Amino acid sequence: MIIVALWGFAVFLASVFAVLLSAATLESKHKLRTRVMVWLAAGLVGYGISFISYMVNLYNDTVGILGLSVVVCIIVDWLYEGTRSAKLFVALVSCLIANVTTFMFCGTTDTLLAGRLGLMKESPYEVSNILFFIGIKIVVYTFFYILYIKFLRGKICEMIQSLSGKMSHYVAAPLISVIGFYIINLFTNQNGIFPNHYWFFPLYLTICVIFVVEFVLLINSVMQTATAMKNEAELNVATNIQQSMLPCIFPAFPERKEFDIYASMAPAKEVGGDFYDFFMVDERHLAIVMADVSGKGVPAALFMVIGKTLLKDHTQPGRDLGEVFGEVNNLLCEANSEGLFITVFEGVLDLVTGEFVFVNAGHEPPYICKKGGEFELHQIRAGFVLAGMEDTRYRAGCITLEEGDKLFQYTDGVTEATSAQNELYGKDRLQKVLAANSSKAPAEILPAVKADIDLFVGSAPQFDDITMLCLEYKVRMQT
What we know:
By secondary structure, the protein is of the alpha+beta class. Helix content is 55%, strand content 14%.
């Protein structure tokens, strides 16, 4: 009777260890007093069932391993916050850690030392050996509990949080592992840890290593999935930031007959910082902006928001556009902890005279189409990028647009679109498709260019935003 009571308690300690790991990981939804009372009641019931089981058969760990694991999972689900799948995952992983720790460290330590200390003479189920085994368990569990708190708990909590508690796809792995451990334990109970077979000890160590590697792979797999989901969420945030900041209602100025404007952006999976903008500076001046932020993801999208806002706020009637760029550049340099920069083309069209004043800060040159002609690349000297270096000076250029002239501006996602054969779309092909559609309205030109890019790229993935803007100066504004 004493042997059964002590052995049942020794096995029961693994469940206590699993409970402590689960409680350290999950957030409670009940007061401490309630938790203690529930765990004590569950412990008494679990130990009682385990005691009866070992009374029937001292060598059968079905209740000791599987039965107590079920009790742990049920109580964890009731006492703690979170989704059911997350709580079940934590409880099963805790049971797995407790059982494998017992199997790998406690059992081997007892076998190696108990005989030499004279605590195990004929059978491991002797009072002196069981008491020694209980002591080993307490020391080992305490050590691994500290390691868990310091190194593993944070990762598991981060993993659950990243997956929003949706752990259903990952519960099967620890569940199968717990059952697998039980089967291995049955085998070792029947044969002993060190039977008189030369192959058994290497096999035993191999089994232990397999459990450890399997556990590490399980955690790494879930962490990688959580990281991927987190990155995808960040990309979605960046995409939403981009889309919400861009003018997207066309016709944009239905009451204005002097011009027609259309713009589009097809975001890539790897979100960049492309942006376009157009706005009335005053009643007779229209500003257009086309820009590309270096980098990807949320940092680029946020920097895009800052750059777009500063450019719009500082573009004021009568101000020299070169001075605007110089001031915006210095402000961006101050708020550039990520080391990003922006290539920008901005132009302001005088709707009365057709004078188009522009500054190009490291961006692609525009294509100009004269009335009745075709689009041609307008070679202009590009200045330095914004946010690249403080106190950079920018000089504005000027061209005159006549009635019926069009301007096409874009980001490098257009010309650097890549086909499955790793070929670039390029400026030559862009000019050809623009020339073929020169007579069309801006709202027709951009879809035609995008369709040609899609035809060229085919099934190849898109790695950069494809952003375009087309402006047509239709008639002079009457003063």
